[in-house]
Amino acid sequence: MKDAKDYQEIVPGKKRFATLVTRIFFYFIGMGMQTAYRIDPDVRKEVDSWPETFSVRIAVVGGPSMLMLKKEGVFKYLGEKEAFCCDVELWFKNIEFAYLTMTARISVPNAIYHNRQFVRGNLKYTMSFMRVLNIVQTLLLPNIIARFYIKEVPRLTFRKMVNRVITYFNLGYGAIK
Amino acid sequence: MLFKQSEVIPEYYEFFNSVKIISGYKALETIPFELGRLGAKRPIIITDKGVSQAGLIKHVVDSFAGTDTVIGAVFDETPQDSSYLVVNQIAEIYRSQGCDSIIAVGGGSSIDTAKGVNIVITENTDDLLKFMGNYRLNKPMKPFVVIPTTAGTGSEVTMVAVIANPEKKIKMEFTSDLLLPKLAVLDPRMTVSMPPKITAATGMDALTHAVEAYIGSQKNPVSDAFASAAMNLIRENLIEAVKDGGNKDVRLAMANAALLAGLAFSNSMVGIVHAAAHATGGVCRVPHGIANSILLPFGLEFYIKKSPKVKALIENLLLPLAGPEVYVQTPQVERASKSVLVIREMAGELKKLSGLPVKLSEAGVTEDKLDEIARTTIDDGAVAFSPVEVSLEEAKGILKAAF
C-alpha cells in the first residue's frame, strides 16, 4: 500500500486556445456593441432605456471577461476591466462552454436552454441586453452564419449591409489602435 | 449542434429536485418528525389572512399536538404581491422569537415570501437586491417546509422566488436550488375549502405549467414524464374538483398534479404564455392562474403557426390532454389544433361551472393596456426560454387575439 505522501495533487491544465478564441470574440462583441450603439437605432433605443452608468459584463468563471459601460451618452467597451457588481452579468460556467458558443457549436439560445450560462442582475435589463446582443450578432455575422448563433435571423436590408461594413471598419481600426 | 439531436433525448440537459414529498391522509402530522430530523424545534408559520380565516392554520397547529415542537410565531399578513418590506418584517419576528425553521402555508405569494425570508435569515442581510439572479446563494438554508393550499403554482418544488421592490418598482427574481424546501406536504384538508373559481384558475395554471414544460426549450425525458403525469391527472380530476370541492380524493389528485407540473416546469422552463401572463398580471393585476388559462390556447396557436418543430410537440400533447381514444382517432395533421381545441373546451366548461374568464376583456383588461402588456412581455425572462423568437409585434398579436 502506498504512503499518504505518495499521492500527488493534479493541477488542471490551461485551455489556452479556447481562452484566446473567447477573448477575441469578446473583443468583436464589445467593439460591435460600441459601434452598434452609434449606428443602429434599435440598439440605441434599448441602451437609452437603461439607467445612467449602467454596466454589463460577459464573463467566464475563472476565465476572460468583457465589460460594457453606458456613461455620458456613450456605450463603451472597456475590455477586461474588473468591475464590482455590474448591473447585469452574464456568466459562462466553463471556458469550454464559452468556446463552443463563440464558435457556434452551441448556439446562444442553446447555451441558455442547456444552463451552460447564468445571469445575475435585473431580468428586465437582461432581456433588453439580450436583444442588443442579437442585433450585434446580425451586424457582425453574415446571415448564413448568424443562423447558427441566434433563434431568428432578420431580413437583410441595404441599411444593415452598410452598418455591417461600418462595424467591420471599426473593429479593424480598434484592433490597430 | 454538437451531434445529431435525438427526438427523445436532448443533446444536453439538467434536472434537479431535492424536495421530499409527503402526500395523503393526515400528511400534516409528519411535519414535527421531519423537522426534528432536520434539527428544528421552533418553526415560524408564514401564511395569509385568507388561509387563516378559512381555518387551515388550525389543521397545521393541531398536527403538532403531542410533540415537543413549539410553533414560535404565526405571521398571517402576507399580501398577494409580497415585497421585501414584508420579508424583512417577518425576518425580524423570526429572530426575536428564536425560530429555527420556516413553514409556508398558502399559495405562491406566501411560499415566495417564505423563500425570501430564508434568504434574509441565512445571509444575515436586509438587502435582497444583492442576491438577484442565479447562483447568488451559497450558504445552506434554514429548514423549510411548504404546505400548499392551492393546486396550481407548484412553488413547493421550484427554485425561484419573486419578491417586489416597491421603491425601485421592480420584481426581484432569485433562482437557486438552495431555495427548494426540504419538504412539501400535500394534505387534502388544505385544499378542500378552495372556492370553485380559484380551483378552476389554479388547475388551469397547473395545466399551463405542464403544457409549457412539455413543449419547452429545456424539455427532457424526466420533465416530460412529470408533465405527462400532471396533464393526465388534470384531465381526469379538474372538472370534478370544481363540481365537487368536498371530494378529498379529487383534491389530492389535483394537488399532486400541480406538484408534478411544478417539478416539470421548474427544470424545463416555460415560454411565451407565462411571459404574457406575468405581464398581464403586472400591468392589469389579473391573477396568474386566470391569465395563464386565457392565454394558453393563443400561445399554442402562435407556436403552431411559427414553428413546425414545436407543432410536432403540441401534436403529442393530445394524448395526455384528451386520452388515448381521442388521440388514436385523430389524424396526425389535426392533432395540434385538436390539442388547442381540447384546452378551449376545458376552459369553456370551467367558465360555465365557475365563471372563469376565457378572454382578457372578461378579466378586466382594457384594450389601451395591450401595448404596455406586450412591451412587458418581451422583457420577461421566460421569453429567453421560448423555443421561438418573439418580437414585440408578435406579442401584441397574441394579446389582441386573446382580448
How would you explain this protein's 3D organization?
The complex is a heterodimer of chains A (177) and B (403). Chain A has 177 residues and is an alpha+beta fold. In chain A, 49% of the residues lie in helices and 16% in strands. Chain A has a 5-stranded mixed β-sheet. In chain A, β2 and β3 form a beta hairpin. The model of chain A has no long low-confidence stretch (mean pLDDT 89). In chain B, the strands form 2 sheets. Chain B has a 6-stranded parallel β-sheet, with helices on both faces. Chain B has a 3-stranded mixed β-sheet with strand order 5-8-7. Chain B is an alpha/beta fold and 403 residues long. In chain B, β7 and β8 form a beta hairpin. Classes of the chains: A alpha+beta (177), B alpha/beta (403). Chains A and B meet through α4, β5 and α5 of A and β5 and β8 of B.
Topology:
The complex is a heterodimer of chains A (177) and B (403).
Chain A: H1 16-39, H2 41-48, E1 54-60, E2 65-71, E3 74-77, E4 88-92, H3 95-102, H4 108-113, E5 117-121, H5 123-140, H6 143-146, H7 158-176
Parallel strand pairs in A: 1-4
Antiparallel strand pairs in A: 1-2, 2-3, 4-5
Helix pairs in contact in A: 1-2, 1-3, 1-5, 1-7, 2-5
Chain B: E1 20-23, H1 31-37, E2 43-46, H2 49-53, H3 56-62, E3 73-75, H4 84-96, E4 101-106, H5 108-123, E5 133-134, E6 144-148, E7 160-165, E8 170-175, E9 183-186, H6 196-215, H7 221-243, H8 248-268, H9 272-284, H10 288-306, H11 308-322, H12 324-329, H13 332-354, H14 370-378, H15 392-402
Parallel strand pairs in B: 1-9, 2-3, 2-4, 4-6, 5-8, 6-9
Antiparallel strand pairs in B: 7-8
